[in-house]
Amino acid sequence: MNKNAMQLNSYRAEPFQFRARRHTMMVLYLLEPDHPDFIEMLQNKIERARNFFDHAPVIVDLGGFVGKEISVTIKEIFILLRRAGLIPLGVQGGDAQLQGEAAGFSIPVVPELGRRCDGQALTEILLQPPEIADSVVEDVAPLEAVSPTTLLITSPIRSGQRVYAEGGDLICTATVSAGAEVLADGNVHVYAPLRGRVYAGVKGDIKAGIFCKSLEAEFVSIAGNYKVSDQFDENIRKKSVHIFLQKERLLLNIL
């Protein structure tokens, strides 16, 4: 047997593999695309969190287009998203005509999955007006004790869900499951097991920190500096931990 034949025999029968994997995906809900300042407001929203949105995959929900006379086109929205650095991967909702328009840009239709948590759409917090975030925590008492720039979540955040506290801190009093994401422009506090992905200082605040009761996270990040679970010391796993930046190094201290 010659050398080339021996090399071929050492490879797998198929040098590739298809696998089904579950990924967290941001959804852009077009609630009122007929708003006169829709494009400008969306563009400003993206600009305020450039680091967060850069190269982020996004699903566009077309439900807000149904039954309305709207001057903004799907094409304009896709162009805006791409210019802003986002990557539209699919659309959901809408009718056959709207989905057909999306298909003209090689954007597939995807099923609507994992939207609800205790009757509220946590994935909608990111791009909805502030009153939507208020409705998520309406069962918190007393609500007055929570800062206007702090988002309080008392329900478990399940795999595939994402919660973003824009302009302030995020407090979670229930479990953040593996496959879930929690993000804040300020600090992130999780007074329960933290098993998902957590981002503090999303807009670059190097003084932001992460506080958790039980560190079991897949990924932690502050102002773009990150560590994955494989980099955690064994002695801090499942411990109460404070994560912070010091001279551009991400440090993890047991509380």
From TrEMBL:
Residues 16-88 form the Septum formation inhibitor MinC N-terminal domain. One of its GO terms (biological process) is regulation of cell septum assembly. It comes from the Bacteria. Residues 153-251 form the Septum formation inhibitor MinC C-terminal domain. Keywords: Cell cycle, Cell division, Septation. Pfam families: MinC_C, MinC_N. Signal peptide: none annotated. Interacts with MinD and FtsZ. Belongs to the MinC family. Cell division inhibitor that blocks the formation of polar Z ring septums. Rapidly oscillates between the poles of the cell to destabilize FtsZ filaments that have formed before they mature into polar Z rings. Prevents FtsZ polymerization. HAMAP family: MinC. This is Probable septum site-determining protein MinC. It comes from Desulfotalea psychrophila (strain LSv54 / DSM 12343).
